[in-house]
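Section handout 9: paired folding examples.
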Amino acid sequence: MRLMYKEIIAGGFQQLLELFPDDEFQNLTRSTIPLLHYWRQHEQTAHRVITGVFGADLPIADLRFEYEVPAFGGNPPSCTDIMCLSNDVAVAVEAKSTEPMYELVGGWRQDGNQQNRLNVLNHWIDLIDARTHGVNVRNVDGVVYQMLHRLASACSMGRNHCAVLYQLFPLASNAAEYIAEYVANLGLLAEATGAGDDVRIILHNIPITPGAAHAAVAAAIGPLDRINRAHAVREAIIADDLFEFGHEDFVEIPGH
C-alpha cells in the first residue's frame, strides 16, 4: 500500500506527517490529530473501514491523503482528508471532531459571483447524478455544501462502488448532539442526491477519550514556538497514546 499526499510518496507515515503544514499541528483539538492517530496502522485500519462500509474486505491499493478533486473553471478544489481507492472502490473519508457544521448550499451560492458559484454547484451535481441518476435539484439548497462536494469527489473517481464516510471523533461532553446533527444533515444529503447501494453515505462514529500521553503532550507544547510545537505533535502521533478509541459504529444513511 502506498501513502499519498497530493502526489505519490513511498516514504511511510513519518514522511506523510512531514508533508502536512505545521499549522495542522498547533494544538490537539483539530480533527486532523485524531484522524492521523487513528490511521497510524494504515493497512489494518483500511481493511476495517472498508469492511464497515461495504460489508466485505474489498482490496484497497492506495490511500491518498488531502486528495483534491478539481472544481469547475479553476475554482478551489474539493480537498478530501483521505481517498481510499482500488480498481473497484472509492471512499472519500472526512474527519470531524470539534468543528461546527459548515454552511448550506443555499447560503453558499448567494455569496460572491453567483453565476460562477452556480456553475461550480452544477459541476458537483453532475458528478453525483452521473452515478445515482437521482439528484433532486430542488432539495440541494438544504444540503451542507461541503458534504455535497465530498460526495461528488467520491463519485468522480469512476469506481463501481463509492461512498463518502464521515469519521466523527466526538468529545464525550457533546457526543450525542454532535452525532445527531451529522446524522440529520447526512440524511438530507442522501435524500437530495439519490444515494443507494452503489453510492453510499456512512457515518463512522469513533468515540475518543484522552490517552495516557495526552495531558503531558498538551502541557509540553504550550510554551513551544510554531515549528517545535508541530514537531512535538507529529512525534506524539507516532509514538504516544494521545487518544483511546471506543467502540466504533458504522451507520449507513439511507437515500431513496
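Moving on to protein 2 of 2.
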Amino acid sequence: MDDRLSHIEDQLLVMAAQEGNSAAMDELVRRWQKRLWHYVFRMTSDAHGAWDITQECWLVIIRRIGKLHDPASFKPWAYRIATNKAIDWLKRRNRYQHIHLDAFQAACDPHHEAAPVREMVKGLKEASRVVLSLYYFEQLSVGEISEVLQIPPGTVKSRLFQARAELKRSWERLDHDIPPRQENGQKTDRSDP
C-alpha cells in the first residue's frame, strides 16, 4: 500500500479510536504491533522483553489516544512511547552494555554476515543506536525523530552525524579483508585512488 494512503488510513483509525470505536483500535494494533515490536527488539535484543514492552506501549496508547491532538502525529507519538518504555526497561535490567548483538544483527538484516555488524554495533552508545534505528530501520524523518525524542531537528541531525561517524570509526577499526578494486578485469593496488 502506498505510504501516503497508509498514513491517511492510520489518521482515520486514530480519529475513530478517539471516539471510542474499539474496532478501529483493534485495527491500529494489528497494523502497528509488529512494527513497534521490531523497533523495541532492536533496542533491547530480548524477544520476550520486547513483547512485554510492546504490550505496555499499547496500554499507554489506548489510555492516552484521546489526548493526541493531531492524528497525523500518531507514528512519532507511538515511537516516543516505545522508546521511553524500552529505555526504562533497559535501565531496570541495567543492560546498557550487555545487549545480545547477534539478536540485534538478525533483526536488522538476517542475510548479512554477522561478524562485522556485531563488532560495529557493540561499541555504539545508546543514543546512537536509537537515532540510527529510528532513521534507517523505522524510516522516520528527521522531523519525526525530533518528535519521538523530543529534541530539536538540528540535534537529531547532529546525533545522526555523530552516530554515522561512530559507525565509520568502528568500521575502520575492524580488520576487513576487502579485496583490491578491479578496473578492466585487472587488480589494482589499494593505494590507487
